[in-house]
Every structure is written in C-alpha cells, then in structure tokens.
Amino acid sequence: MPGIVIVGTQWGDEGKGKVVDLLSERADVIARYQGGNNAGHTVKFGDRSFILHLVPSGIFWPGKLSVLGSGVVVDPEAMLAEIEALRGDGVEVGANLKVSDQCHLVMPYHKAFDKLREHLRGAGKIGTTGRGIGPAYEDKMARRGVRFGDFQPGYEHELKERLREILEEKNVLLRSHFRSEDALFDVNQIFDGLAALVERCRPFLCDTTRLVNEQLDLGKTVLFEGAQGTHLDVDHGTYPYVTSSSTTAGGACTGCGVGPTRIARVIGIVKAYTTRVGEGYFATEQKDNEVYRTLQTRGQEVGATTGRVRRCGWFDAMVVREAVRVNGIAALAVMKLDVLDTFPTVRLAVAYQDAQGTRFDHVPHWMGQYGAVEPIYEDLPGWQTPIVGITELSKLPQQARAYLNRMEELSGAPISLISTGPRREETILRRPLV
Ligand code: IMP
C-alpha cells in the first residue's frame, strides 16, 4: 500500500488524531506535510491523553518513522519542548523522528507580528492561534525565510548577513507600521538563540523528501497527516479566514516532495456536526442556545492549541461535499457521533438560500456572500440513547444509522468508519478504510 492522505473536511478539529493513530498500526511512516504548532492533535488510549502540535501522532507506535516534511513550518523551541514532554511521558523520540532540513523556521519576529497584526485588525481579526504561522509562510513565499538547512557550520557569516537584511525591514515594520515600543530585533541575539536551538534539533534533520520516496519505493505505507481542515486551506478555504498553508490533499505532495501518482487513497475526517475556532463564515453556527451548549459541553469543544472555546453548529453538507471534491476523498470517517445522543431532532444543512430566495448548493466564495446566506435544514429524529463505545453498526439505533446514511448521501463519499468515543477501541469499522 503506497501513500494515504488523511485530511479534515471541515474547519479542523475533526478528530484526525484518532484516525491517524488507528491507521498507524499498519503504516510504516507517518508524515506531516503542512502547518506548524498551530495544530493540536488529541490522541487518547487507555487512560492516557496526549495533545500533539508538531510531532506526528504516529510517534506512539514503536518501530514507525515520524516525519515533518518541508511544507511544515517549525518553531524549534516548541518542537524541542514537545519532544521533551513526550520523553517525560515515557514515549521514545529519537531516530524515529525525522525533520526536513528544508522546513522554514518560525522566527521570533513571526510570533510577534502574528499578535501585533491581529491586534491592529481589531474587529476584523482572523482569530489566529498567535503561533506565528501566517507570518512564517508569508516570508517563505516572499523568499525571506530562514530554513533549518541555512544553519551550516562555516556559513554563519552569510546567514547573519541575510538575517541583517531581513531584520532591517522587520524593525521598520515594528516601529512604523505596528507602532510598537517593543525592543528592536537584534541580529546577534536572534542568530545566537536560533543557532543553539537548531543544534539541538540537528539529530532529527535530514532530506525527508528522499527518505519518504525511498520508503515508498520499498513498498512501505506512508500516512500523510493533514493539519487543520479543507476550509482553512489558503486556496480552497473561506478566505481570508483561513490558515496560510495548503491543508488539502494536494498539500501532501508539495509538502513532502512526492508525486501525485504516489497517493493511492485520500481519507476524509468529518465530525458528525460542525465546529470552528477563530473568525469567519459558519452558516450552521448555533449561538447562545441549548443546541450550542449541548454540542460544546458534550463534545468538549475547546481548542487543543489555544484553549479557546470552539464555535459549534449542525452538520453542513455543502462544506463536506466540497471537501470530498477538492481532496478526491474515497472514504469518510465520521467522528463524535455520540455527542448527538441527547437530541430529540438532529439537523443537516442541505442547501443555502439568500435573502432573494436563491438556492446555493456550494459554500460561497466571496466574503459578501458569506454573511448573506441562511442554511436550509433537513430534520431527522434523534436516537436519544447512549451509543458511546458501540463497535458494531447493527447495534446503533436505527435513527443514528438513518442520520449516517443521509450524511453519506449528501457528502458524496462512503462512510467507512464511525467513532463512538474518544478511545481507540470505541470505533465501528463499517468497511476497510484502506
Ligand atoms: P493560524 O493558522 O494560526 O494563522 O490561524 C488561522 C485560522 O486557522 C484561525 O481561525 C485558527 O483558529 C485556525 N486554525 C489554525 N490551526 C487550527 C487547528 O489546528 N484547528 C482548528 N483551527 C485552526
């Protein structure tokens, strides 16, 4: 089995961590291809629970390789802290973790600018995670980025000169644009701080493009683990309320340096309802009502990275259908179905309608339209009985199966896995995922 991509179909936090963890058993390599420590993947097994931000979830499986491809932006300090925390919990992190020497670094000024820019935007803020991810990708595209590989012994002078040029501009922005009184960025301070961190990261650095392709040549299974979700993709998401990377399946190719012909299957992860962290379009959002409170509390919908309470709402078929199309999804895994256990009625948005009564069957692409559409719902009877931990489809109440069947019809891809609880074993495998 060659490359398999795991991708979120909504706005992230769909529960990818659990599926990646389940599939890791049969994979040889687990690779992240984009994003940075803005991501938060929760993995639970036994009585243990871990939140990972950078390290792939495959790290918990002995004998597997975990890879951060060149499309990931890395805050070296955050990565080292995560590695230390994992080791402190008895998880082995050594030769089983490989990080691309082409990864761009999240620099101290990226983190500062992320926060300053959000502050400046005021009410128009994106609601970023404040981890410096957007500014790091900006600099990457503007060819102003600094990569792990730039820290070569003997080339310190060249790198310092580049950094000096970069900082000249950053310091002008800091004072004139952001009107910040913070201390100016200092070349030597930044260089020395980073050089020490990069040295500690060096044992993990390598040419991961070559590594991943070699593994595929050997017939090994590589699981490409997407971060965030389809509608946070910089091209296909609800722009500008998106993250700054390619979260969709195509990002696995560019972010790990593999050809599209290497991808055998794309698996979409979908929450049985919808959540979003940060600002931006969310047609089925429920605010300050009982539905919101039930979804938020039963689903424990709190951001794994920032601790922000997530916005919650009903399932939106347009969002998932578009994700199926953009990613070429062959199978869906439905997560957190048990969160809906108590509702007398469950709702699915099947279309949108604007004030003139025009019907839409797709997510609006323009900001003006975002706020102008209302969802059209289809109501189904709820099952009102606990399904937590059920492992066989036939044991699910008929109403839950009807809800899943409708989700499947509307999404346009078969549902292969249903999650009935956070633990590995709380899973229904309807048909093989791969
Ligand atoms: P950034 O990625 O920090 O620039 O944030 C941009 C948008 O993506 C914000 O709305 C964030 O809340 C959202 N975002 C970033 N990472 C995640 C994630 O892992 N899960 C859910 N939302 C995320």
Task: Give the helices and strands, then pairings.
Elements: E1 3-8, H1 16-24, E2 29-32, E3 41-45, E4 48-52, E5 65-68, E6 73-74, H2 76-88, E7 97-100, E8 104-105, H3 108-121, H4 133-141, H5 156-177, H6 187-201, E9 205-206, H7 208-217, E10 222-225, H8 250-256, E11 263-271, E12 274-276, E13 285-286, H9 290-298, E14 311-313, E15 315-316, H10 317-327, E16 331-335, E17 345-354, E18 359-360, H11 367-370, E19 373-381, H12 398-411, E20 415-419, E21 427-429
Parallel strand pairs: 1-10, 1-11, 2-5, 2-10, 5-7, 6-8, 7-9, 11-16, 15-17, 16-20
Antiparallel strand pairs: 3-4, 12-14, 13-14, 17-18, 17-19, 20-21
The structure holds inosinic acid (IMP).
Label this structure with key terms.
434 residues, Adenylosuccinate Synthetase, Chain A, domain 1, Adenylosuccinate Synthetase, subunit A, domain 2, 2 domains, four-stranded mixed sheet, 12 helices, 32% helix, globular, binds inosinic acid
So, the CATH homologous superfamily of the largest domain?
Adenylosuccinate Synthetase, subunit A, domain 1
Percentage of residues in DSSP E strands: 15-25%
- General form: globular
Distinct helical segment count:
12
Total discrete domains: 2
As for the CATH topology of the largest domain, it is Adenylosuccinate Synthetase, Chain A, domain 1
CATH level-two architecture of the largest domain: 3-Layer(aba) Sandwich
The end-to-end span amounts to 8 Å
Q: How many strands? A: 21
Structural class based on helices, strands and sheet pairing? alpha/beta
Quaternary structure of the protein = single chain
Strand order of the largest sheet: 9-7-5-2-10-1-11-16-20-21
Arithmetic mean of pLDDT? 95
Residue runs with pLDDT of under 50 for 5 or more positions: none
Ligand list? inosinic acid
Q: Please summarize the sheet with the most strands.
A: 10 strands, mixed
Q: Approximately how much helix is present in the residues?
A: 25-40%
**Structural Rg:** 22 Å
CATH class of the largest domain: Alpha Beta
